[in-house]
Write a structure and sequence with these properties.
alpha+beta, elongated
Length: 137
């Protein structure tokens, strides 16, 4: 998206900030080739998105009971639980399968801090298989 101020927002699906930097440089190069007088400066990532698998299943009902102030969970509308973290500011979507998505973080250091904060919370809500075998007669 090219704004009236001359700033360009490049939305990429990259796995690192360095890859995003490279994608933005390529975009500027394309604009130069078609005749626009552009310069590459003031590069920055506005928002990062990440996906993580915690390695265990999560009991979402318990999580919402323990953190009602931060959670939104309506299983009849959406299978994931939305967890709104305020410090650092981040929106987290948590699924029973153990998959977690993070959005709204500004840097990879901030993402690491979010993971350090949320992992102990999720560890307290492990879904254990409650299969009981009946005794043989």
């Amino acid at each position: 998206m090219i704004k009236a101020s001359g700033r360009i927002n490049v939305i990429t699906n990259t796995s690192s900030e360095a890859d995003s930097h490279l994608a933005a440089r390529k975009f500027v190069r394309i604009l130069k080739r078609i005749g626009f007088p552009v310069k590459f400066r003031d590069f920055g990532c506005l928002q990062l998105c990440a996906v993580m698998d915690v390695g265990f299943k999560i009991r979402l009902e318990r999580l919402v009971a323990e953190h009602p102030y931060a959670c939104t969970y309506e299983p009849e509308l959406f299978t994931g639980l939305h967890y709104h973290m305020t410090d650092p500011k981040c929106s987290i979507t948590i699924f029973t399968s153990g998959k977690v998505t993070f959005s709204g973080v500004k840097s990879s250091a901030e993402l690491a801090k979010v993971v350090q904060v949320i992992h102990p919370v999720l560890s307290g809500c492990v879904l254990r298989d409650e299969l009981r075998t009946s005794p043989r007669a």
